[in-house]
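A quick aside before the break. I want you to see a complete sequence-to-structure record at least once, exactly as it would be stored in a machine-readable document. Don't worry about memorizing anything.
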Amino acid sequence: MATSDCAHYIELCNSPIKFEAISKVTNVFYDDANQQVFTVRSGGSMGVVVKGPNDKTSITFRMEDRGNVSSMKFSPDRKILAIQRSQKSVEFINFQDDQTTDTLEYSQTCKGRSTEIKGFVWTNVNEISFITGNGVEFYQVNPEKRSLKNLKSLSVSVVWYVWMSREDGGMLLLSSGQLANSLQPVYFLPGAMLKLPKFEVDLPTLPKQPKQPLMERDVTMAYIYGQLYIIVLRHQPRPGVTGAEVVLYQVPHQKEAPAKKTNMLRLEMSGRFAINVVDSLIVIHHQASKTSVIFDIQLDGESDGYVSNHYPVVSPLPIKPFKMYLPTLNIQLGQDKMEYNCELYSANWIVFQPDIVIDAKLGCLWSVELLLEPLVTMIPDKCRLIKFLLQRQKSKSVILQVCRQMLLPGRQSSLPIISKVMDMLNNGYKAYLEAEIVALASDSANQQELKKRVIIDQSDMYTNVFDEVFEDNEVMEIPYKFKVAVLIEYIRSLSQREIPVQHYLYELIINILVHNNCFYQLHQFLQYHVLSDSKPLACLMLSLESDYPPAHQLALDMLTRLATANEEIIEVLLSKNQLLPAIRFIRKAGITDTVSSRKFLEAAMNTNDGQLFFTVFKFFQQRNIRLRSSHVFHPGEHCDVYVKHFEELFGTDALMPMANTA
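That is the input. The structure line, written in tokens, reads:
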């Protein structure tokens, strides 16, 4: 991380959308629904250039100049262009394959002689709404017939409106009343316009001062943590409060319930503000101080039981400075581009939701982005920091970086803090595992939402934190007791949430204990099941027998408890030439009829103990008689070499059946 980045946690994207700047002959419009910038030269007769986030959303065309254009927007499928030139009607042009199919425009006039159109919004493919001073007119557009059909109308006095689109429609917020603080939400779905309960925005009352009306520029809508909020900037402070505030009204999922005030953001500054929402954080830009500040409503705030009051996550800081290269006409010097220091918080900036900043005079559109790494040093409380980072979409590497730092000498956190952080990580991990099961059985939308979550699983912690820190020779001064305590805490956290612990975590603990000759502690961990039974763990214990002989029996006891490791137990016993204990084990386990006689006879022959070979051979002879009424081994068992070896040792007569002596 560059040092210069440490003084900033907000930046504008490196690759802005560049367009022709506004001028006497060029108008600029922005459609936030389709994220498209329109530059219109001479009413369209000199060309209209549409630029979007990618080439597919960029179009160039011409249209007849029929007067000044006040607004223009494409339908969601970009097949119909709506243009408003007057307060009485909206014109339409059909498109196909991003080209005008003809120059013939058709139009729709609003209802009523005195009615004026304040604006329009596309609510769905082939569905559009006019917002007038008298309410909303909801139309269906038929491009083939070049006509519109009125689907529904809503009568309400409108001072101003705010619109927010979404894939299945959108939300329209209508302002009415003398102070414009009576807000009427209208929800749009394909073919439907639903009127939601009206509510009032409370305005501060100051002594001897009239209440100021609620302005359109101070109201916006955004989805924060998947929930729709109406965001109101309140400039006039309440008694006892310094500076402006931002009030959040949550729009409930239940259509019959009104929006309710849930959160208050304390700015403690006055002046001109602009609001963006980035990764569910509310970013507030302050022009006078040329700084921005972030709020996270998921972090704890001061609550009176109804409304939570929040302060900034960190102190206000300016947006990261940057330079741009703009075209120049200085051909004589051979320069076609000029380096330009962009003015931050310019008076020409216009902000759109959720994260757009436009400078129409410069001809640039940026998205606002969050820099996470600088925040690591700005939020000293590790639990608060991790809670904050877990809610961010691209924070995984930063979270792992924080976890590593918490274990390093000089930056080391206390074990209780580390334990709390692990619980937070594993709460998210457990919720993800549960949600994954639900998502697999449901629609793809849930699966897409699931992919946005930042999850730190066991593999992430082992590879990027524990193994990297504990196995690094440069940080070997970390006491082994601390290493073991941290790993045990992580295992405890997983186990409490019923998340199966992966064997490599146990292996790491064992390796640390063995490296430090802590065999007694290892023995206790196994004896009291601090380390859960598993086949890989048992195999690891078997490999430690030369350093710690009791490890052999501990491994066998573990395999026996598993009750699913019969083959492994037999292999261990045979490798140790413990054939009689192996035979007793298969009897006890009830698997005498299924084990391989060849495996036992080969192990017995390799011991060069004639008496032991005799006992094992006769045991399996008795099994043959019981299973097939014959002492002869089945050809498929491939035991001829062992029968021949028996004859060489004891003679042909000894092949005859006798009681098993095992």
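Two observations worth writing down. The longest helix spans residues 415-440. The chain is about 30% helix and 25% strand. We'll return to this after the break.
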